[in-house]
Amino acid sequence: MNAKFKIISLAAALCAAMVATPANAQEGEAVVYAESGDWTIYQRSEECYMIGRYGSDEETLSIFMNSLDRAVFWIQHSDWKSIRDNTSLDVKVEFDNFGEWDITAKGRSDVDGPGITWSGNIKPDENEDSFFGEFMAAKSMAISYRGRLVTRLSMEGTYNASMDMGRCLAETKAVNPDPFAN
Predict the structure, then answer these.
(1) Is 182 among the domain residues?
(2) What is the pLDDT of residues 102-161, one digit of tens each?
(3) Which end of the chain has fewer CB atoms < 10 Å from its terminal CB, N or C?
(4) Cα gap 135→94, rounded to integer Å
(5) Which residues contact 68 (CB under 8 A, 6 or more apart)?
(6) What is the pLDDT of residues 68-92, one digit of tens each?
(7) Among the listed residues 120, 130, 11, the one whose alpha carbon sits nearest the alpha carbon of residue 70
(8) Which of 71, 98, 74, 93 has the alpha carbon at shortest distance from 143?
(9) Would 177 be classed as within a structural domain?
(10) Spatial separation of the C-alpha atoms in residues 5 and 11, rounded to whole Å
């Protein structure tokens, strides 16, 4: 099985894992849905998200989903103080050796510190590539800015955590507001 087919299969498996059941989270309130490896998966009314913390909580990677089309990625580091909210930054993201993705990220901050956010496709695009599929399959993620490596994070356990997040999303009204739809 070639790598591209494997990634597409992983993205398809995520979609197939989504079977609608009653939601656990009330409007606006986030609850812990599951713990999976180094990831914590949260459910909030119309979305699910997962958070991984690295290096004694200095670096945080969060992934948000409220549909099966795109996932929003947000990486933060306490030392990235020069990043300003809404500033555009062109970065490259690579999972293992699958090839780089050219990403235009936006600066964003909260109590976990400054960072960058961007969205990646879940369903395969016209080239049969899936950013989220590569995320699920990878053992590492590297982010570069202006030709310099900014960070490399372990993605160990990401597949299982992503599947948990898929099940979480299936329990929200965002995926299937009509239980009689396909």
Answers:
(1) no
(2) 999 999 999 889 999 999 999 888 888 999 999 999 999 999 999 999 999 999 999 999
(3) C
(4) 9
(5) 15, 18, 122, 123, 169, 175
(6) 889 999 999 999 999 999 999 999 9
(7) 120
(8) 93
(9) no
(10) 10
Tell whether 44 is covered by a domain. Answer: yes
pLDDT at residue 182, as a whole number: 54
Within 8 A by CB and 6+ apart from 21, the residues are 170, 171
The amino acid at 57:
D
Give the chain's domain count: 1
Report whether 105 contacts 118 (CB < 8 A): yes
**pLDDT interval class at 12 (50, 70, 90):** very low
Residue 23: which CATH number?
Answer: 2.60.40.1880
Nearest to 109 by CA among 142, 138, 76, 136: 76
Is the pTM above the cut of 0.85?
Answer: no
Full domain range(s) for residue 19:
3-170
- Contact in structure between 88 and 106 (CB atoms under 8 Å): yes
Residues in the chain: 182
In a domain, 176, yes or no: no
DSSP 120-168: EESS--TTS--HHHHHHH-SEEEEEETTEEEEEEE-TTHHHHHHHHHHH
